[in-house]
Recover the amino acids of this structure.
């Protein structure tokens, strides 16, 4: 009997131990949920090249985790939303833009990438993973913006998002993450370049819509005129056929009654004349309506073209202003990157240059306007005759021209003049007379100066006439004096 109790106790102990082992084994058999990745680390075997493995990743399955030599933890696959408010990113055109965006990332379940997540993200909290991914996204987003123009970023948004996704995902895979979604909310810049592009596109769309409406209205007017014309032609043809049938019947009836035929013929003539007059009036009114429609269309086309020219001019003007402002902004930005003091001085210089250029432009404008007003007043004083106005201006400057000619020979000093005179020369003049005459003629006479200006001396100042050649003796005395 005692042997039976001991045996029973032993059996119970064995059963308890076996149950405990079974429970322990069941606890060490880990099942991985679908929204997590189970990382088994410790002694998990070796790779194909003989190196020991750091961990084993399992997604959507189960594995037995050996006690003491192995342990298991889970990586959450819940998507992580990261708000990236990128400010002052430098584009390829050296224009800084703001690109607020939202990125959605998560732990990757791809073989190899999942191993990177186990090695670099295991044990990190959600906030730490979010900050790590945010730093990587900031760098790659700036890199992509630096390789693209603003027009490409703004117009071809798919190309921009594709480049961002490709660069960001490549870097995220290195730490075991994958990019799920990219959402760029809005793109803006401090210089207003993107806003100007939007206004230009809106203006072009408005002009195209106005042009389309004008064309449709023109087509509608033409269609109405054509329909009225076809209606009048059909009515006239029907009336002609009806009249022809009536005439035939009346002719057949009138063959038996000459008197009635004569009266009916007279009535028919009057009716035909009245119908022709009415038809002519209807055609005249139709032509007048068509003429008014064409005039309205021409006026509308003219207004449309003028609007296109004005809008194009305003856009070109605004574009030049924006380019000038962008260039000045770029100068200030470059100066700002060096130091605070240099940035302040460069900004002041840029503002001073712009102010000076504006002041010079305003001054030149005022000078030209005053000159234009003066010239207009001179022309009005000359009775509206441009030639007489030019003569008045030349007459006003004639005193200065004569003074300049006199000053040209005023300070010429002739200490001594030696002339070998052999006696009688050509035309009764000796060498001394020819020399004096040539010296005096080196200054243009007043009459010739007026003739070169297109004017003639007034009669009271004398007219051109030939003077008798001075006697040689008188010229010699003048030379000696």
């Amino acid at each position: 009997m005692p042997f039976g109790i001991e045996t029973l106790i032993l059996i119970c102990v064995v059963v308890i131990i076996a149950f405990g082992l079974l429970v322990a084994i069941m606890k060490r058999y880990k099942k991985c949920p679908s929204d997590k990745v189970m990382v088994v680390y410790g002694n998990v075997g070796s790779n194909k090249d003989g190196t020991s493995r750091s961990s084993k990743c399992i997604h959507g399955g189960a594995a037995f985790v050996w006690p003491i030599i192995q342990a298991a933890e889970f990586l959450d696959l819940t998507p992580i939303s990261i708000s990236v408010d990128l400010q002052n990113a430098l584009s390829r055109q050296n224009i800084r833009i703001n690109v607020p965006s939202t990125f959605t990332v998560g732990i990757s379940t791809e073989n190899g990438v999942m191993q990177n997540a186990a090695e670099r993200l295991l044990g990190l909290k959600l906030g730490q993973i979010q900050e790590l991914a945010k730093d990587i996204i900031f760098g790659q987003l700036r890199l992509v913006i630096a390789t693209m123009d603003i027009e490409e970023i703004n117009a071809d948004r798919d190309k921009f998002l594709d480049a961002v996704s490709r660069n960001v995902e490549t870097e995220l895979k290195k730490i075991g993450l994958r990019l799920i979604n990219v959402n760029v909310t809005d793109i803006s810049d401090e210089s207003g370049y993107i806003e100007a592009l939007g206004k230009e596109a809106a203006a072009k769309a408005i002009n195209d819509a106005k042009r389309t409406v004008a064309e449709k209205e023109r087509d509608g007017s033409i269609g109405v005129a054509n329909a009225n014309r076809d209606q009048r032609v059909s009515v006239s043809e029907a009336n002609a056929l009806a009249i022809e049938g009536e005439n035939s019947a009346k002719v057949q009836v009138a063959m038996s009654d000459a008197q009635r035929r004569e009266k009916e013929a007279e009535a028919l003539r009057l009716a035909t004349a009245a119908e022709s007059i009415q038809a002519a009036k209807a055609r005249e009114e139709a032509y007048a309506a068509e003429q008014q429609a064409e005039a309205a269309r021409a006026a509308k086309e003219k207004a449309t073209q003028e609007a296109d020219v004005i809008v194009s001019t305003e856009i070109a003007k605004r574009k030049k202003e924006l380019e000038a402002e962008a260039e000045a902004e770029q100068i200030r930005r470059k100066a700002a990157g060096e130091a605070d003091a240099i940035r302040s001085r460069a900004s002041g210089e840029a503002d001073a240059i712009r102010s000076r250029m504006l002041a010079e432009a305003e001054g030149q404008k005022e000078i030209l306007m005053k000159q234009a007003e003066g010239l207009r007043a001179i022309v009005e004083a000359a009775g509206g005759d441009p030639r007489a106005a030019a003569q008045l201006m030349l007459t006003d400057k004639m005193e200065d021209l004569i003074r300049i000619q006199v000053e040209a020979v005023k300070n010429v000093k002739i200490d001594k003049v030696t002339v070998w005179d052999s006696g009688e020369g050509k035309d009764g003049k000796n060498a001394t007379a020819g020399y004096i005459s040539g010296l005096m003629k080196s200054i243009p006479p007043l009459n010739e100066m007026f003739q070169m200006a297109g004017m003639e001396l007034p009669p009271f100042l004398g007219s051109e006439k030939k003077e008798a050649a001075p006697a040689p003796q008188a010229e010699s005395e003048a030379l000696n004096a």
Observations:
- The chain has five domains: 2-74, 78-190, 197-332, 339-381, 387-411+419-457+473-480.
